[in-house]
Design goal:
heterodimer; A: alpha/beta; six-stranded mixed beta sheet; two-stranded antiparallel ribbon; 8 strands; elongated; B: alpha/beta; Nucleotidyltransferase, domain 5
């Protein structure tokens, strides 16, 4: 009579299946929560203020991040940088004189994103928001002109970018 | 006499997973190092149009004038002072402490608005800081107002110098 044998237990090394399961889960997690390759124009060197409460802005496509630091002493203008129309970081003056004519680069850029540009195929965006990423040492003396420019460009909503801290 | 050798080990346990594990580990480490994760930063949103003397957009015709009050913020040496009408006044050297005090006072005011039948969603708070107030000391005031339950918090600016 022929006897059935138990199958051989294979000793071909470490079972890596659980490892792959866990690693795959981690990769999917990181792919979902990480924002890679998206340049919002945020200056990461700025020491932004902390806040206990705050919200996440899900639709960052409708936003423009303005990096603001105090201007030089004796000057009424802060130093503002943001992603310009060409997609590169641009230094934006609030107002300057070029050839005897007054220019308002920051307001013009805000209007460009807010009102659109038919020549470039950019549609008006009434939901356009401004994110102000200002150093915590920025005084209201330098911050107020930026807010005024936002107002004059008909930007209805702005938000301060803050570090998230847990309330003690 | 036949000597029995060691038992043969089977290596045919399926496909070779080593390259796959290598690649997935590299991807994992890449994400961990390069990822800009959610949650580390957030935003304090202000939806109210700025109150600016001589600048800004007038409200559309027919829009009722909302209930609004202002919070004046100033720094007096080491002291941090925030004052809203005759119902909220805070003077502290610690902005965090000021935030907690102001939040309680504003929450009490909101409750009194509700008790008086005011539609609290329409109440606007305008924060008027002095020019020397830094953003670090300004954020606690906005936070206190939002945390107290007010929906519309904005900043006042004065263009007449």
């Amino acid at each position: 009579m022929r006897h059935h044998q138990m199958p051989h237990i294979r000793e071909g090394g470490v079972n890596v299946t659980p490892l792959i399961d866990v690693v795959m889960c981690l990769i999917i997690f990181f792919m979902l929560v990480a924002k890679i390759g998206v340049d919002t124009g945020s200056d990461k060197t700025l020491d932004i203020p902390a806040s206990f409460i705050g919200t996440d802005i899900r639709d960052m496509g409708n936003t423009l991040t303005l990096n603001v630091i105090n201007g030089p002493s004796g000057d009424s203008q802060p130093i503002v940088t943001a992603l310009g129309r060409n997609g590169e970081m641009t230094d934006l003056k609030l107002h300057d004189m070029v050839g005897g004519a007054m220019r308002t680069p920051l307001r013009d850029l805000l209007k460009y994103y807010r009102d659109g540009d038919p020549a470039r195929g950019l549609a008006p965006n009434p939901d356009f928001k401004v994110i102000i990423r200002a150093d915590k040492s920025v005084t209201y003396y330098f911050l107020a002109p930026v807010l005024i420019e936002c107002n004059l460009a008909h930007v209805k909503s702005f938000a301060f970018n803050t570090k998230s801290v847990a309330p003690s | 006499m036949k000597v029995q050798g060691a038992k043969k080990i089977h290596y045919d346990a399926g496909p070779n997973m080593t390259p796959m594990v290598d690649i997935t580990m590299v991807i994992l480490i890449f994400f961990m190092l390069c990822g800009n994760f959610l949650g580390a930063e957030h935003f304090l949103v202000s939806d109210v149009p700025l109150q600016a003397n001589g600048a800004g957009v007038p409200p559309p015709a027919g829009v009722p004038i909302p209930t609004r009050f202002t919070i004046a913020v100033r720094q007096e040496g080491p002291f941090y002072v925030a004052k809203a009408g005759n119902f909220a006044s805070v003077r502290s050297t610690d902005p965090k402490r000021a935030y907690e005090l102001l939040k309680d006072q504003l929450a009490a005011q909101l409750a009194s608005f509700k008790a008086a039948g005011v539609k609290t969603d329409d109440v606007q708070i305008i924060i008027y800081p002095q020019p020397n107030v830094t953003l670090d000391n300004l954020i606690p005031v906005e936070e206190a107002a939002l945390d107290a339950g007010f929906k519309k918090v904005g900043f006042g600016v004065n263009t007449t110098k």
